[in-house]
Amino acid sequence: MTEYTPKERLSRALTGQSVDRMPAVCVTQTGTVEQMEACGAFWPEANSDAEKMAILAEAGHTVVGFEAVRVPFDITAEAEFFGCDIKDGTMEQQPSVVGHVVKTVEDIEKLKGYDLSEGRISVVCDATRILADKYGDELPIMGSMIGPFSLAQHINGDEWFMAIFTDEAFAFALMEFTTEFSIAYAQKMVENGADTMVIIDPTASYQLIGAEFYEKFVVPFHKKIIDAMHEVNVPVVLHICGDTTQGLALMESCGVDAISVDQNVDAAAAVANVEKAVIVGNLDPVNMLWNQTPEKIREQSQKVIDAGVGLLAPGCGTVSKTATMNLQAMIEVAKSHKY
Ligand SMILES: [Zn+2]
């Protein structure tokens, strides 16, 4: 029987090649308080210090047992980079975006000419490099970033949802801008050793904006990022929150390799609704992984696998207070599954 490294195994699983068993990975954020206590790198510092970010990301492998390492832990570095006000995170909570910087096409112009070697964008790239130097031969190095639609919302504010319906010129200009940035940032992570890209685009939701607008304002932009990643042989996982069941075919049309679905989606329906994208998910991070026993988690994990998911994983970001043994229960079931 062929033995694969975790890196080969995930890469093969994401690109539709045969593998010996299911990889045990988490495509959404991995940081928890127990890991912070075990490795000595804590939020919020681990969000803005490359060494600490790498140490806490590494704990996902060394403490919990995930067969990959992944950075960062939040989705505000991009908005912060463009000058949005950020509410600081705590040891248990991720930072959030509270102020916005773009109202008009002219405002977008002012953001151009940015330098990716600055701010928290460069911290994430540095952490990626540290992890790749240490684990790059063996483990998948997952780079993650916010998707262009949700980044547009972060830098424009909640008016963004109105803008796509009422001001097409502005909405397209902002999507072009955020997408161009996303590609450059993703490429920089890859240059620093990332071999798998995760796009977290929580509000790019078919459920929120409908098929017509999703097709117009999301699909072509996701496609550009994914094409750029495929050019450098990096598979892409797309995570969108909420009940994406009816939108999966449309989400897949951007050419993405895998789609991470949340706990509101029926896993079997998700598998039935895609042509070839690998379905990733979808244990409830709150009601299952955080608040249930390992035994219950094993049971539910088996159900999700039986529904046909390609990768068993949390349905959204891991809750920081989740117990290590609970995550390990999920990992155990994933590792024992032969396709
Ligand atoms: Zn989510």
UniProtKB/TrEMBL annotation:
**What is the protein name for this chain?**
Methylcobamide:CoM methyltransferase MtbA
Q: Mind listing the GO molecular function terms for this protein?
A: [methyl-Co(III) methylamine-specific corrinoid protein]:coenzyme M methyltransferase activity; dimethylamine methyltransferase activity; metal ion binding; uroporphyrinogen decarboxylase activity
Keywords assigned by UniProt, alphabetized: Metal-binding, Methanogenesis, Methyltransferase, Transferase, Zinc
Question: By its UniProt entry, which Pfam families does this protein fall under?
Answer: URO-D
Organism field: Methanolobus mangrovi
* Keyword Aminoacyl-tRNA synthetase among record annotations: no
Signal peptide limits: none
What are its GO biological-process terms? methane biosynthetic process from dimethylamine; methylation; one-carbon metabolic process; porphyrin-containing compound biosynthetic process
Q: Which gene encodes it?
A: mtbA
NCBIfam families tied to this protein:
methylcob_mtaseMtbA, mtaA_cmuA, PRK06252.1
Q: What is its EC number?
A: 2.1.1.247
The Uroporphyrinogen decarboxylase (URO-D) domain sits at 5-336
